[in-house]
Amino acid sequence: MTADKKTSAKTDQVKGAIKETVGRAVGNERLTAEGRAERAKGDMRQAGEKTKDAFKR
Known about the structure:
This protein is mainly α. The chain is 91% helix and 0% strand. The chain has two helices and no strands.
């Protein structure tokens, strides 16, 4: 996994987690859903990169 893609995936995960937590704290369902979606996007990106790395070996 290249460093920039790894950082990008981790950033999406962290931003998503923060949005989700803030959304729950203030009772904003839309912000909570956006956070979940962004975190899932980061998780999928990271999983895809790990899969590519596994096949390169």
